[in-house]
Each structure stands twice: as structure tokens, then as C-alpha cells.
Amino acid sequence: MVTELSKGVYWVGVVDWGIRHFHGYELSTHRGSSYNAYLIVDEKIALIDSVWTPFQEQLIENIRQIIDPAKIDFVIANHAEMDHSGSLPYVMQYAPKATVVVSRRGRESVEGHYHQPWNFKSVQTGDRISIGKSELVFIEAPMLHWPDSMFTYLTNHNILMPNDAFGQHYATVFHFNDEVNQEELYEEALKYYANILTPFSILILKKIEELLSLKLPVDMIAPSHGIIWRKDPMQIVKKYQEWAKQTPENSAVILYDTMWEGTRKMAEAIAAGIAEEGVPAKLLYMPVSDRNDVITEIFKAKAILVGSPTLNNGLLPTILPILEDLRGLKFQNKIGAAFGSYGWSGESVKIIQEHLERCKIKVVTEGNLAKWQPGEEELARCREQGRMVAKAIKAS
Ligand code: FEO
Q: Which CA distances in Å does 390 have to 81, 276, 280, 359, 383?
């Protein structure tokens, strides 16, 4: 349902209740998502972003509830990823006189996606377009999270539309942060940050500094996914500053897979050792764990312990994807350890340690191997490994 955010400023997006895996690389979206587009009706009319292609007709219907789409003067494409630009060709059929406003890198990505002879205008940070009583102010935000990403700010209404930044994959019947369950909201906001934005944390801190230095009054932050921050809108900016510093809590996550329960017994003994030192630990059995939820847990924790038996001189296949995710996400300030049972050759622990070191996760204990099923001696060693990790957490 179309919603007025401020006089003449409308949410015209769509809520996608059914999506459970997002755009190809399988970001899990347990609570659905939304594609937020905003229509600004002033002396000129601007549409900020569009929606994913399957919802293009709904977008046009939403716009029609307010104005004839042919009256649109500017279509701002803050980012070319298709959940926000997928409807552009459809919109442009209905808004043929519109200028497509993009960042400098956005010109390349939007043209590259659609190969259309639209009237483009490239903008850079500080550029303004007057639409009557208000102006659109543009702030390039490269790597938040693509090189083409851009924020659009609307003067007078004091609304920042930062596209993916500050968003959440969270479908609700409401549109504003003060209307929804705060725990759910922050779970989704953190999952979004941990899984998508972590590698760009240093750039995020700089971008927020730059944004604050512009001293733009912000009454609302309206991202392109999830709810709009209207109550204390800067709370999410402060949270991003906190998350971008990557100062994990004093806790551990233990990821493992097991063939004949040997590595499971090790994982549980390690957890018991960690708990003996008063440090919380979570055990995540990878075959039944959602990878993106696991990443969020890793983001929060100081220590990551990874366990796998040896299979064909390597790891069980459920363990490898998360190690590859860790490489790409470049988590900072983590410590780690490896463990696993084996029958014949026993390479798994060494391989895990190599992965952790490649991810710049400091390995704080010897690799912990148990041949066949762990007995009392091996389980005591696991508890000792847990205690050592817990002490390293407390000392960090
Ligand atoms: Fe929501 Fe980068 O797309």
C-alpha cells in the first residue's frame, strides 16, 4: 500500500513476503524483504530507485495512485543491482521524458545492464538537482556496497535515501522502525551488515564521517530494503559505526560436521571447556545450519573454532563454503582454533588452520586431532583446548 512519508513524498515500493534466498548467491531471507522505491512530487517529479523486475507492474500501479507516470522528470538509480533497477526499462516505457540520474560509476553499470539510449545524467558528491521547493543532493558511496552505490538526500523533508546501506531484509506490514519488533529489526539489520557490508567496514566508517561532516539534518533514513528509520533515525548510523569497528563480544562459536560422532564429541567437550572459564559458546552443526545465520554468529563472536573429520584427505563438504565465506568477508579481530577426528590420514585440522590463517584469524591453540573415536584422554585435551581459547578471549 502506498504510504506518504512526508508531504508529497511517497513509498511506492513492494513487499516481497515469499523470498527466502536473495539474488543468486543465496543470502537467506527468513523474514522476506521489500524493494523500497520513493516518489517525490514537487514542481518536478522524481522516482528514487525502482523494484525487482517481477514486481514492475505493481510499482507502476503504485505510482499511478499518485500521478500519471508520464509526468516523472527524474528517475534516480542509486545502484544498478537488479533488485533496485530491474524495473527501469518498464518504468522508462511509461516515463519517456525522464532523465535517469546515476553516479559516475552507475552510468557504466546501468548502461551495461540495459543497453538503452536513455537520457542519462551522471552526478557526483555534492551535486544538486532542484525539483521545485526541494533539492536532491547526491553523495557517492562507492563500496556501500557496489562501486556505483549512491545516496540521495532530499532537502526540506530531510530524508536520506541511502539505497542498500542501513537496510534489512525484513518484510512487515509496517513501514517505520517505531512500529516493528525491535529485536527482529536489529537481527535483520545486523545480518545484513555482517553478510554484505563487513568487508567494506573501513570505507563505511569514512563514509559516515563524510556524511556527518556535511551537516545535513536527517529526520528520516529511507533505505531500499526493509523499514524506514524515522524514530531517532541516527541510531542505525551509530550502530553501523559500532559494527564497522568490529569489536566482537567475548564469546565463541564452534562450527563442526561429523561422520561417526567423533568430531561432535570433541566439539561438545571443547564447548564445556570454554564454559568452565565462564565464556559463552555456541555449537553450530553445519549440515543443519543456515550459512548466513552462521556468518552473523561469527561476526558477533571473538573466537571461531572449526571442526571436521578427514574425508578423502580433506574436509567434509559442509565446512568448505563457510571457510570460503570467511576469506571474502575479511573479519577483523578474531581468534581461532581447529579440531577433528580421523581414521587414517588426518589432514583436516591442518587444512582448517591454513584457511583460518589465510583469513588473518589468529590460531591460538595447537591443532587438536583425535584418532578414531575420542577417548577420555582426547576429550580432556578438548576441554583444555576450550579453556585455552576462553582464556585467549578474556585476555584479548
Ligand atoms: Fe539491494 Fe545491492 O542490492
A: 42, 9, 9, 20, 10
Dump pLDDT digits (tens) for 83-132: 999 999 999 999 999 999 999 999 999 999 999 999 999 999 999 999 99
Q: Cα of 345 to ligand 1 centre, how many Å?
A: 44
Helix (H) or strand (E) holding 33: strand 33-35
Residue of the nearest CA to atom 1 in ligand 1? Answer: 164
Last residue of a domain, one of 197, 216, 244: 244
Give Cβ neighbours of residue 228 (< 8 Å, ≥ 6 apart). Answer: 5, 11, 36, 175, 176, 177, 220, 221, 222
Residues 186 and 167 in one domain: yes
Give residue 297's domain range.
252-395
Give me the count of residues in the chain: 396
Q: Is residue 153 annotated as a catalytic residue, yes or no? A: no
Pairwise CA distance, residues 46 & 317, whole Å: 49
pTM to 2 decimal places = 0.95
Pocket around ligand 1: residues whose beta carbon is below 6 Å from it?
79, 81, 83-84, 145, 164, 224-225
What's the CA-to-centroid distance between 354 and ligand 1, angstroms? 32
Atom number in ligand 1 closest to CA 145: 2
Q: Catalytic annotation on 225?
A: yes
d(CA 364, CA 271): 16
Rounded distance from Cα 386 to ligand 1 centre (Å): 39
